[in-house]
Design brief:
Blueprint lengths: L7 H6 L3 H15 L2 H24 L8 E2 L8 E2 L4 E2 L9 E2 L4 E2 L9 E2 L4 E2 L9 E2 L4 E2 L9 E2 L4 E2 L9 E2 L4 E2 L9 E2 L4 E2 L9 E2 L4 E2 L9 E2 L4 E2 L9 E2 L4 E2 L9 E2 L4 E2 L9 E2 L4 E2 L9 E2 L4 E2 L9 E2 L4 E2 L9 E2 L4 E2 L9 E2 L4 E2 L8 E2 L4 E2 L9 E2 L4 E2 L9 E2 L11 H14 L5 E6 L4 E6 L7 E6 L8 E6 L4 E3 L11 E5 L2
Antiparallel strand pairs: 1-2, 3-4, 5-6, 7-8, 9-10, 11-12, 13-14, 15-16, 17-18, 19-20, 21-22, 23-24, 25-26, 27-28, 29-30, 31-32, 33-34, 35-36, 37-38, 39-40, 40-43, 41-42, 41-44
Helix pairs in contact: 2-3
């Protein structure tokens, strides 16, 4: 039988093994008839048997990156996630946590870079740290959440970023910061908390890093306010940074909204209470001389105030007087009296003078031939000695009395009384020894007065026609 064994050197150079012949056989099957293939397989089998003994005797160890059950060829490559650092390995080594092996037949493992991690052995690639977490150093086998006050955006963060002022991260593991809402602010970088606006201040927008003091005229009574409140009418906020409002003091006002200070009430007006938004005009009869007044002043006696909102008083005009305080106009002086300017009382016309009618500002001296025997006379009386001969005759006396009785302020009828027999009785003041004529009438609207007789002191007279059934009757006296 023919020997098909190859020389040792030839066999040693062939390290393909059976797998190579199987590959050749497979290839031949596609191109050669089955009979030829069978013959070839038989030849190869005989050849392989002859080679096998020589190959075992001279087998090589598996190179780094490969391994076999006995550490000798034939070998298989280490799979991704595993590596073989030495020759003749019987098992691959898995990548350690924090390391990975990306391809086959590796001889070493790769360290996971900062920002990535390998949590378990035998990993073929590192995992990027997810949003909100970090892998701070190379070779990380775990990740750490970004601490409160910091954040980690996106994937693969090696470190957390401090949140900027105006924003905050209240818990660990956040991938983005939160903007402080209106009414709150964050003054520092890397903050885990936000601060409410203090009373007296406000924050109008989101993401603020500072608060704003309420401007003058406004106040912020509570914390975390987004806008200040304007001071209401009657109140003011001196500010800035006011937490409350103050009422306008007595004598001052604060009109409208947003007053930073109170304003003194104008002259002519007054503010009697705290917290007034408008002053009160002084009414007629009163005045307010100065600004900032809490009260009003009545016109003094002798003065008057004719209009509202006056700042001063006016002396009463000549011929008028103002007897009491707070008058808005003077009173006309009555007949028999007079008053100059600024008078609070009236003066009677002195004896020897008179004051006719209303509104006299002076008395008039009696003309020749007439006289005024008592004060406060509105007219003169004709003198008794009309011919100036030193003797007053009956006729002259009658003339004097004729003028005296109508103008005398002291003569009046009193003590009327009905006597028995139709007689009437009366008395006259300041006249006790004069005889008077009695006139009678039943209708005051007519001038038909009838002479009834003479009344004798005590001024009694008789009217026989006055009966119970008679019409109403009127009496008057006449002298003589």
């Amino acid at each position: 039988m023919r020997d098909f064994r190859a020389p040792k050197k030839h066999l040693a150079d062939s390290d393909l093994g059976l797998a190579k012949y199987n590959k050749i056989s497979s290839c031949l099957e596609r191109h050669v008839g089955s009979q030829i293939i069978m013959n070839y397989k038989r030849i190869v089998a005989v050849l392989f048997v002859g080679i096998c003994t020589e190959y075992v005797a001279t087998a090589q160890p598996c190179p780094p990156g490969y391994y076999s059950t006995n550490g000798l060829m034939p070998c298989v490559p280490a799979l991704p996630g595993y590596y073989v650092p030495t020759s003749g390995a019987t098992n691959p080594t898995s990548a350690d946590p924090g390391y990975y092996v990306p391809g086959s037949a590796a001889t070493t493992q790769f360290v996971a870079l900062a920002g990535a991690y390998c949590p378990i052995p035998g990993m073929s690639s590192a995992i990027l740290a997810p949003p909100g977490y970090i892998a701070s150093s190379a070779g990380a086998s775990s990740i750490t959440p970004a601490s409160a006050g910091k954040y980690a955006p996106g994937f693969g963060n090696a470190f957390a970023t401090p949140v900027p002022a105006g924003q905050y991260t209240p818990v660990a593991g956040m991938s983005s910061p939160i903007s402080a809402p209106a009414g709150y602010y964050v003054p520092f970088v890397g903050s885990a908390i936000l601060l409410p606006a203090d009373p007296g201040s406000y924050v109008p927008t989101n993401g603020a890093s500072s608060e704003i003091a309420a401007q003058a005229g406004y106040y912020a009574p509570n914390g975390a306010m987004t806008n200040p409140i304007p001071a209401p009418p009657g109140y003011y906020a001196a500010g800035p940074g006011a937490v409350s409002v103050a009422p306008a003091a007595i004598g001052a006002i604060a009109s409208g909204f947003g007053n930073a200070l109170a304003t003194p009430a104008a002259a002519g007006c007054y503010a009697p209470f705290n917290g007034m938004s408008a002053a009160i005009p002084a009414p007629a009869g009163y005045f307010v001389q100065f600004a900032g007044s809490a009260g009003l002043t009545p016109a003094s006696p002798g003065f008057y105030v004719a209009t509202n909102q006056a700042t001063g008083q006016t002396p009463s005009l000549p011929g008028t007087y103002t007897p009491i305080s707070g008058m808005s106009a003077g009173v006309l002086v009555p007949p028999g009296y007079y008053a100059g300017g600024g008078a609070s009382s009236i003066s009677p016309a002195p004896i020897g003078s008179f004051a006719a009618g209303f509104g006299n500002f002076t008395a008039t001296t009696d003309p020749v031939g007439r006289y005024t025997p008592i004060p406060a006379m509105a007219g003169t009386i004709a003198a008794g000695d009309l011919d100036n001969n030193g003797i007053v005759t009956q006729a002259e006396l009658n003339a004097v009395l004729t003028n005296y009785w109508p103008y005398s302020p002291w003569l009046s009828m009193t003590n009327f009384g009905e006597q028995c027999g139709g007689e009437f009785q009366f008395a006259l003041t300041n006249a006790s020894a004069w005889d008077f004529s009695v006139l009678v009438n039943t209708n005051l609207a007519t001038t038909n007065w009838d002479y009834l007789g003479v009344a004798y002191p005590m001024y009694q007279f008789n009217d026989p026609a006055a009966t119970n059934g008679a019409p109403q009757r009127f009496y008057r006296l006449r002298w003589p």
